[in-house]
């Protein structure tokens, strides 16, 4: 029995990432095995920890023996634990899918696996940390690895996409740094729990300034509307498994950071209204643009932005039902978008332009991959009996609780747009005559297993949502109950402040 | 004198940030854009150190002697943060320059207007 400790999620991949070149010198296939073994171990300990925290009591680790708020602490609460488990399960599946990635070119494979582990360390760090500056550091680890992975292929326009991403990302990190600076001058601490406890003493104008800075900064990772220019380029230029990593881990960590900051520190009514407005704009603009895309990966990228808008919308209700729907949507988006990106990797493997029109009749050539894509498409538009149906239903129910009829109408009409462009692809896959000249990339066994697991997850959660709703319930409780978080992390701080 | 210094430092910091933003937005040369990012970071770093300063404080080294003398110390936390932020800024600049090299090899130019295979 391993003693599970949240620090493993950060320390082990960081260490292993830098040991990987040495291990590769010893025995080349090690660079492929080691990440898989680590991710499998993480899936195991994250599930153990998640079951342990189901009673609502978070697992808290102090780093370097300094007590919080002086030292940095990691908080594995039901909410952060759920997201970490999600990240690690998907990291394992994406590793499985890309096990034979760049089989011939050793150097490229080495870079890929190093950066993959750094992204996992960074995103887990963002989610687990209880210190706002530490969150910034992990955000930068994630961002720098993401820039490098975007520019992975020399032949494509990856460098251009990556530079664009870097410009926006560097601007975002400056804003977050500035926000942390102003926050520090106001409350004199960097610990999230202590900030939350002391936030009531801060002047509302100052609060609004800090909030806007955080909003723009984290909004870039979370693919919020005016700042998401990097998304379609990065998703379409990066390798297929990396696009899945962006959708399932980087964007999830971004939205987590945003939600965490807003729910913990800023209990302003305006914050939720801002999130609502940004969510609606993000969703509507992205879905309308997605319909006009001819490149399949760009279409999926815009659809991903639209889903992120939906998630922001769910969190903006600030009710238990809304948070529940939001976390469910996060789960679904991570699983389904990964499935779509992974199957798309095979569908457009030999196509240089990645055009949707090049997909005619592919269902006959590669029935399994087309079936998986279809499963993902049905699930993401929210058709029963797939998992996407439940999250959308919970979102609409949460909106109905708040009497937001217009919003329900909007979400439903956006779903219709989604159906239009996903089914356009589906009809080309299944009902068109096949081009004979396009070669077909046979999926390898690892890829088939990884996609099947995701597909089974989509159907299983769709048929039997109780599999995960229990975890989401405790996660939603943990996010809503701010005082309990503060008392768990820093006992006695509330009396000290007041 | 003290007031003049305060205004000078804060003014410089804000000026640096604005200068950096100007360079990033207006300049067409990729290298100049990277320099602009770097200047913007420097401005924020200066702001950090300035905020941590307490007038008349010494270096924040905890020792019995410092306790006895009862002298004020400057806030050590912003200085620790700034060190981390400098390292991160270095990393970002390095990646940015590597990307500029890659872009130059791919397009044979570092003018941002001529690099637009993707929609900017």
In short:
The complex is a heterodimer of chains A (498) and B (120). Chain A is built from 21 helices and 2 strands.
Describe this structure in words.
The complex is a heterodimer of chains A (498) and B (120). In chain A, 75% of the residues lie in helices and 2% in strands. Chain A is mainly α. In chain A, strands 1-2 form a two-stranded antiparallel ribbon. The longest helix of chain A is centred in the middle third of the chain and has 30 residues, at 158-187. Chain A is globular. The mean pLDDT of chain A is 87. By secondary structure, chain B is mostly helical. Chain B has a single domain, classed as Helix Hairpins (Orthogonal Bundle). In chain B, 72% of the residues lie in helices and 0% in strands. Chain B has four helices and no strands. Chain B is elongated, with a radius of gyration of 20 Å. Chain B starts with a helix and ends in a 13-residue tail after the last helix. The model of chain B has no long low-confidence stretch (mean pLDDT 85). Classes of the chains: A mainly alpha (498), B mainly alpha (120).
């Amino acid at each position: 029995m391993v003693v599970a400790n949240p620090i493993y999620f950060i320390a082990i991949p960081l260490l292993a990432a830098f040991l990987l070149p040495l291990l590769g010198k010893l025995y080349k296939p090690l660079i492929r095995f080691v990440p898989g073994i680590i991710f499998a171990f993480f899936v195991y300990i994250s599930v153990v920890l998640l079951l342990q925290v189901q009673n609502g009591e978070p697992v808290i680790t102090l780093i370097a023996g300094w007590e919080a708020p002086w030292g940095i602490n990691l908080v594995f609460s039901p909410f952060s634990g759920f997201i970490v488990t999600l990240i690690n399960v998907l990291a394992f599946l994406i590793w499985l899918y890309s096990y034979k990635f760049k089989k011939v070119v050793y150097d490229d494979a080495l870079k890929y696996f190093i950066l993959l582990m750094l992204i996992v360390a960074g995103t887990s760090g963002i989610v687990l940390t209880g210190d706002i500056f530490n969150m910034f550091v992990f955000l930068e680890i994630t961002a720098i690895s993401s820039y490098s992975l975007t520019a992975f292929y020399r032949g494509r326009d990856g460098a251009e996409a990556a530079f664009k991403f870097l410009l926006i990302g560097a601007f975002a990190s400056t804003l977050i740094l500035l926000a942390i600076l102003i926050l520090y001058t106001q409350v004199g601490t960097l610990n999230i729990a202590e900030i939350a406890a002391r936030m009531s003493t801060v002047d509302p104008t100052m609060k609004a300034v800090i909030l806007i800075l955080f909003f723009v900064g984290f909004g870039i990772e979370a693919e919020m509307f005016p700042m998401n220019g990097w998304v379609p380029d990065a998703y379409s230029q990066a390798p297929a498994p990396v696009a899945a990593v962006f959708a399932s881990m980087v964007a999830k960590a971004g939205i987590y950071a945003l939600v965490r900051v807003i729910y913990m520190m800023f209990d302003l009514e305006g914050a939720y209204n801002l999130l609502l407005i940004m969510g609606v704009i993000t969703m509507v603009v992205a879905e309308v643009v997605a319909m006009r895309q001819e490149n399949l990966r760009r279409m999926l990228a815009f659809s991903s932005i639209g889903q992120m808008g939906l998630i922001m919308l769910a969190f903006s209700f600030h009710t238990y039902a809304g948070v529940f729907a939001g976390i469910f949507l996060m789960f679904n988006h991570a699983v389904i978008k990964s499935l779509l990106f992974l199957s798309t990797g095979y569908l457009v493997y030999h196509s240089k332009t990645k055009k949707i029109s090049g997909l005619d009749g592919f269902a006959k050539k590669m029935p399994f991959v087309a079936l998986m894509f279809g499963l993902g498409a049905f699930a993401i538009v929210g058709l029963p009996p797939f998992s996407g149906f439940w999250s959308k239903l919970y979102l609409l129910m949460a909106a109905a609780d708040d009497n937001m009829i217009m919003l329900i109408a909007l979400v439903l009409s956006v779903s219709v747009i989604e159906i239009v462009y996903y089914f356009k692809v589906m009809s080309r896959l299944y009902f068109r005559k096949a081009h004979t000249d396009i070669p077909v990339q046979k999926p390898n066994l690892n890829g088939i297993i990884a996609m099947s697991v995701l597909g089974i997850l989509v159907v299983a959660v769709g048929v039997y949502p109780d599999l995960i709703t229990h975890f989401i319930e405790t996660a939603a409780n943990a996010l809503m109950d701010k005082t309990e978080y503060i008392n768990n992390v820093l006992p006695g701080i509330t009396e000290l402040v007041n | 004198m003290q007031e003049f210094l305060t205004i000078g430092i804060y003014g410089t910091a804000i000026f640096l940030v604005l200068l950096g933003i100007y360079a990033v937005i207006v300049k067409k040369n990729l290298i100049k854009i990277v320099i602009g990012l770097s200047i913007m970071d420097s401005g924020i770093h200066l702001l950090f150190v300035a905020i941590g300063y307490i007038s008349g404080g010494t270096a924040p080294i905890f020792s019995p002697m410092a306790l006895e003398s009862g002298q004020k110390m400057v806030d050590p936390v912003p200085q620790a943060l700034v060190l981390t932020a400098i390292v991160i800024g270095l990393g970002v600049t390095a990646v940015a320059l590597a990307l500029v090299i890659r872009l130059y090899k791919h397009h044979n130019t570092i003018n941002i207007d001529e690099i637009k295979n993707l929609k900017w």
